[in-house]
Amino acid sequence: MIPELCAIALALAVGIPLARMLNFLRVSASPRDNVSLLTGEGLLLGIGICAATPALLPWSRWFIVPALLVIAGLSAWRSAGSSPPGPPPAPSRWALLFYALALIALIGYALYATVAPPPEFDYLTNWGFKAKAFFEVRSIDWQFLGKAIYFNVHPDYPLLLPLTYDFIAILRNGWSDAHLGVVHVAFATALLLVIHGAALEETRSRLAAAFITAALVPFAATPWIGLAEGPFVAFATSALLLIRRGNMALGAILLGLAASTKNEGLALIVAAALGLVCARRARDVIRLWPAVAIPLPWLIARSLHSLSTDIAAGGVIARVVDHLRNPMQLIAAIASVSLGKPLLWIALAIGIVIVSRTLATRERFLMVTLVVQFACYIGAYLATPFDLAWHVTWSWERLVTHLTPALTYVVLTSLIAWHDASEPAAQS
Predict the structure, then answer these.
(1) What is the pLDDT of residues 257-270, one digit of tens each?
(2) What angle do the packed helices 181-203 and 396-427 form, to 10 degrees?
(3) What's the CA gap between 247 and 197, in Å, rounded?
């Protein structure tokens, strides 16, 4: 696992000073950044930068590693005057218990993710297949993408995850997918660090932050090793949480990285913009420009190479009209897919009811964003060129995981705030 661990170390070395430097651009920055938030942001940024190097530099570690070290050095020099992370408050025994539970679950996820090469069908025919094909020719193989005859190769999908795998192969100087699951553990860890740091600043309670982090481990540790769901959830959820708390610079960059991971990220940019408008933060919409600029080169290249796109294939309007004429077909397909965790959904629904007023007012940005993104997913099903039942069966559970972490986080923090507000009133 040495190349995989070296890749994570390089991502941290590049990303942490860059995240610290970008935090100066926050609208409502606190005097000090906590360690977990800064580390999570830095790891996500660093992975994005590492994935970009094969698209910009020769595929040799003797070019890529020095370039990353130069970027890390410049970022560290630029952020040298910033305040260092402040000392965290001492955890209570209950907080230590929740930290232990989160750590044990994350260790179990790491064992699960690395016990064998990624076995998922979509990894073998899409994400991993493209990465290996690119590494064979030491570049993005546009001819291969343009002539792909099997639909599941999805040549129109963004390349951040395949290029991340290729970055590790460059460090190894050879292809091996035996331990690529480490990448997904890194994404889950980064998301949990962002969640913990954001919860710690918001609740001012180490116990509450530890509880929220432990509760969200199942959402961050997605089971689809080798697929882009885990990376997308990490980028998208972190971006929404940062934008929600006014950190537009970092949030917009992570939103752009989400759009560079899955096509659903493009819809999320639009959803976030609408969420900002509805939350009376229209001035912040223009500050989302990095979210558009980051995936733009890929969109231009995809258009120039005429890479096929399934959903946008000819006859979109006819397919939408046909599915709208028979809406029960979509409803039945969705109802047939089991999402499991019935107690979780019941608890989440009860929490939403309890804090519904808070969600409709203080959390308007996030709620509108999630609703619009959900509507986009339904629209994609209406426009699908594939059999509707088949498409829903093999994607609905994964799409729901895109939205659940951010929704669960905001419900939990709102419940904690509601409890803290009601407790003094009960005592008086």
Answers:
(1) 999 999 999 999 99
(2) 20
(3) 13
